Each structure stands twice: as structure tokens, then as C-alpha cells.
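User: Let's play a game. I give you a shape written as C-alpha cells, and you guess the letters that built it. Ready? Here's round one.
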């Protein structure tokens, strides 16, 4: 079964492009069973580790929330852990995967913005987009959005 891309309608396709774009055959070598699940697990691995670590030490998580100015810190930390682990379960079990992916994308952007707002007053392009800035978190969030769109395109739940 070859992979292909079909635009919404042939009427919107420019004349110089085919209505269906067929990918090279070598791309099919990467369509092995279990690869998608392994890639999703890789995308979510840090959330899995971080969620369980905060669940096991909710006092530390509350202190981190307090440090960035959130109150009530412990209650918000518990809510964060519940949201994070529930979204991960949705993602990894394939139950409304698109929703879990969008929840994690939103969580990533909100957490990155909150940490960035507290971390520094110097706003330089390298500080915003480079290591330690918002760039990696934006890329991760976009990965979750891409996963959500792909899941919705393929029919939602697995």
C-alpha cells in the first residue's frame, strides 16, 4: 500500500502539480508495524517521566509552581499532573488521540510561556528561539498539533 497525498479538491490544485502526489517507494520502508506507536511514545516520553516524577513528589511540584508565581501551588500542581497523565493515556492508548495531543500542545505552550516569563527579562531572539528559550517547546507543541491533525485525517480513534 503506497502512501499518497490528495489535496481537498482537484480544482484547488495548481495546473503544474498532479492531483495526487505519490511518494517514492523507499518511503514505504518506514511504514513498519509498531513504528508509529514508538514515535508517539518518543514524542511523549518526557511528559511520561515528568508526570510520574511530579506525582511521586507533589511537594516539589508545588514548590516549582510557587516559584513561578502560581497559587494555590499544590492544587495547581495536582491538576497539572492529572491533565498531563490523562492526556498521555489518551495519546498512548489511542483514545481520542487528537484531543490528548492538543491538550499536550496547549500544556507545553502555557508552561513554556510561564517559565519564560519568570526566567528572564532579557528578550533576545536567541533567548526566545534558542536552547533554553521557547523554540524547542514551540517545535514540540507543533509536533503534537501535527499528530492531532494526522489522527483526525485518518478517522480519529485507532
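Assistant: Ready! My guess for every position:
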Amino acid at each position: 500500500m503506497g502512501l499518497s497525498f490528495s489535496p481537498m479538491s482537484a480544482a484547488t490544485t495548481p495546473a503544474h502539480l498532479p492531483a495526487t502526489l505519490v511518494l517514492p517507494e523507499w518511503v514505504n520502508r518506514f511504514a513498519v508495524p509498531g513504528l508509529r506507536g514508538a514515535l508517539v511514545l518518543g514524542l511523549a516520553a518526557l511528559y511520561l517521566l515528568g508526570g510520574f516524577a511530579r506525582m511521586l513528589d507533589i511537594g516539589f511540584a508545588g514548590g516549582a509552581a510557587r516559584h513561578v508565581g502560581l497559587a494555590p501551588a499544590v492544587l495547581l500542581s495536582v491538576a497539572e499532573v492529572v491533565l498531563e497523565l490523562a492526556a498521555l493515556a489518551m495519546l498512548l492508548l489511542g483514545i481520542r488521540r487528537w484531543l490528548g495531543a492538543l491538550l499536550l500542545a496547549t500544556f507545553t505552550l502555557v508552561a513554556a510561556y510561564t517559565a519564560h516569563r519568570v526566567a528572564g527579562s532579557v528578550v533576545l531572539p536567541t533567548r526566545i528561539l534558542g536552547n533554553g528559550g521557547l523554540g524547542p517547546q514551540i517545535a514540540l507543541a507543533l509536533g503534537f498539533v501535527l499528530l492531532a491533525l494526522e489522527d483526525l485525517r485518518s478517522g480519529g480513534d485507532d
